[in-house]
Amino acid sequence: MDPRLVKVWEDFGDIFKYQCFLHWWQENGSKLFDSPQVEMRFNKYLASGLEFLIHSDLVFARPNMVCIAIPIYLDTEVARAAILDAWELARVRGTHYDRDAKYQIFKLDLKGRKTIVPAYRAWALNVCVQQSLESDELNHWGTFEMGRHLNLSPRNQIRDKDNLENRKRKQNLLRTTFCQNKKAAINLIANVEIGKFPCKNEVDVCQRWTALQQSELDKAIDDGLWQPGNWMDREYSFMLPDEAAYAHGGPGSKVIYMLDDFGAVATPFLAPKRIRAKKKVA
Fold first, then answer.
1. Is the dihedral of CA 194, 195, 198, 199 positive or negative?
2. Where do the domains of the chain lie?
3. How high is the pLDDT of residue 69?
4. CA distance 47 to 90
5. Which of 22, 42, 129, 164 has the most CB atoms less than 10 A away?
6. Which residues pair with 52 in a beta bridge?
7. CA distance 259 to 257
């Protein structure tokens, strides 16, 4: 019943019918995230101060017309020449496209981008702990143990030389950091559901399911079918197929190995745009 969720589902489809994310991207990425190709670079603003108006600037569409805004301070002769230049440019250029990509990649500052992978790992580990069997070592982990394993706050890792007061303080800080990362993941996921990538804004809540759908969902949760028990394996194979193909077993929980691989994933979006050259030592 949420049209935002319906639209995302219609556009993205069942991603898990593809073998991995790269296969989904090759078939769907460009039509969802690429801007339409234009005949030539379109610049709304001209040197004379004139401005081409696009459909979003107008109250109603003006098909087959070139709409131009003219500054009132322009000299008459300058305005005439500028209008003629704009007219000729529009005729030569032909139809211009002012549409952008169907889905946008939001700009986050470096601090915001750094939280994406840790937030995902915190959320995923929390779900795995909640679903773990009593015999699993994860079953008794709390927010402190999860935050410590994920190394979410290196400076608050407990050292042998820490006294009792410092240990308690660090434990509380690590618990807080873990909860902050989990909350960030929940916000990221909520925005993904309505087609915003990546975004942490609060999402307006509206009714999503009919009474029958809600009843079926509740039963699936009670029966352990949502999320299914193998959800982490599927997500791991989908996002990191190369690592999954050569995954090796070992002592401890399999989830730990998978989350460690997610933590080691390449993050080029965190690399600086320009790398300063090292100063030569005389």
1. negative
2. 3-32+105-270
3. 85
4. 15
5. 129
6. 68
7. 6
Q: What separation, in Å, do the N-terminal and C-terminal C-alpha atoms of the chain show?
A: 69
3-state secondary structure of 105: strand
CA–CA distance, 68 with 52 (Å, rounded to integer): 5
Instruction: Give Cβ neighbours of residue 259 (< 8 Å, ≥ 6 apart).
Output: 121, 124, 125, 128, 150
Taking the C-alpha atoms of residue 247 and residue 121, their distance in angstroms, rounded to an integer, is: 18
Give the three-state DSSP class for 42.
Answer: coil
Residue 193 DSSP one-character state: T
Q: Which two tokens stand for residue 253?
A: 């929980």
Residue type, 16: F
Reported residue count of the chain is: 282
Instruction: Say how far apart CA 164 and CA 177 lie, in whole Å.
Output: 20
Distance CA 201, CA 282 (A): 51
Q: What are phi and psi of 105, to 5 degrees?
A: -95, 110
